[in-house]
Amino acid sequence: MKKYDQYKRLIRFAAGVSLIAVESIIFMYMWIYCYKDQMEMPYQRLGNYALAAVYALILYIFSSIYGSLRLGYLKNGELIYTHTLATTCANAVSYIPIVLLVKHFRSPMPLVWLTAGQFVIIVGWGYVANTLYRKVYPPRKVIMVYGDRPMKELMEKIYSRADRFVISSSIHVDREHIEEVKETLLEYEGVVVCDLPSTIRNNLLKFCYGHSLRVYTMPKISDIIIRSAENMHYFDTPLLLARNDGLSVEQAVIKRAMDIAVSLVMLVIFSPVFLVTALAIKLYDGGPVFFYQERCTKDGKTFSICKFRSMIVDAEKRGEILMATDRDPRITPVGNLIRKVRIDELPQLLNILKGEMSLVGPRPERPELVELYADKVPEFRYRLKVKGGLTGYAQVYGKYNTTIYDKLKLDLMYIQNYSLLMDIEILFRTVKILFEKESTEGFSEEESVMVEPEADGDDEEDDGDLG
């Protein structure tokens, strides 16, 4: 398989271009037969080609946002789902230039039928392309290297992607036996490096790099900080600058402007949903429509987050911190429905408009939980360098029941690598996770009792790397 690794990107690119080309050709014919003649001066052949090219570009942008052309990375169902979502978004956006060219609002039904036809093509492409790709590139046989603490959770996650990895073996490593372990690694196609002390981990990483052996590494908090550092060239020794100040002034201004504009538009668009949801909650038990709770945001400041009430009245009357579980008896039937599609989160648009939250950022936690988690992992307070968000990097790339420590890493990756484009991408990706079952699962009953972060292990030992 190593011999053909260099062709992976080429195969993915060719498969993606083929699908986008077919969809764009179908779009062009839909335009020609359903809309073109309604223009005052209909396009000739070149104009139709140009419109198809614009459509292909829009489709490619949405495909990139949702990662819908990543053969091998996604399972068949997810590949089909993500590209169908990308195609639907592209078709919806393409209705805008169609209206501008025709200069009148026309029925969008041709676009609906177009989407249905494209869906059939996507299903066929998804199964055929992914199956052929996996025959050419079967799962890698990897070895897991761990230290004093076997990584059972990570092992289970890797087992869940048997289409990508096969853990052929696992091996314990310490200072005394590191040379013996190195020789064993050469027998495999990849190495999964767990949470090892820095000196051992760095030694193994250099060995694998020198022997062109693929390595999958669990990052430490310090790795995430260094990863976002800037290259400085003041003198003839490489220097990395990690600012670690949160957002710059200009980033904060642009982010706030986007928060105001998007939240206002969303409040107008979802006003009917607000009304129907409020009526349903009120009619069910006569209790209050909204639920308020103290949460922490930037610099540890607290505010009252606003949600649609999804539980019985006085669900936390005794003041206990109780996480919502998968089958929580406190959740009402109406609450169960609105939680599944995240409608209960919509009133937070008001918090965003007031400046207490942002559209994108780490999910704001309760002050008691911040103290609890910070006692276990002091780095947990690093999340407070930016405002809490309605959605975030951890919500898009994690799951509702992802461990606290893994969510912290994801949130820090967002903070350290922030950009406006990242915010836009996360907002679009949020649409994708709304209808995924895993993303809406609550904590299990065991996790609701004991939500304890893992130790980072960043400071276990010095690197010992003298060059």
What's the topology here?
Layout (H helix, E strand, L loop, with lengths): L7 H27 L10 H22 L9 H27 L6 H28 L3 E7 L5 H8 L5 E8 L5 H8 L4 E4 L4 H13 L3 E4 L3 H7 L2 E3 L6 E3 L7 H21 L1 H15 L4 E7 L5 E7 L24 H8 L7 H7 L3 E3 L6 H10 L12 E3 L1 H5 L6 H13 L3 H14 L11 H5 L18
Parallel strand pairs: 1-2, 1-3, 3-4, 9-10
Antiparallel strand pairs: 5-6, 7-8
How would you describe the overall organization of this protein?
- Helix 1 (8-34) runs antiparallel to helix 4 and helix 9 (249-269) packs across helix 12.
- Mean pLDDT is 84; it is low at 440-467.
- 51% of the residues lie in helices and 10% in strands.
- It has three domains: 2-136, no CATH class; 140-218, Response regulator (Rossmann fold, 3-Layer(aba) Sandwich), CATH 3.40.50; 249-449, no CATH class.
- The protein has helices spanning 8-34, 45-66, 76-102, 109-136, 152-159, 178-185, 198-210, 221-227, 249-269, 271-285, 333-340, 348-354, 367-376, 393-397, 404-416, 420-433, 445-449, and strands spanning 140-146, 165-172, 190-193, 214-217, 230-232, 239-241, 290-296, 302-308, 358-360, 389-391.
- By secondary structure, it is α/β, with parallel strands linked by helices.
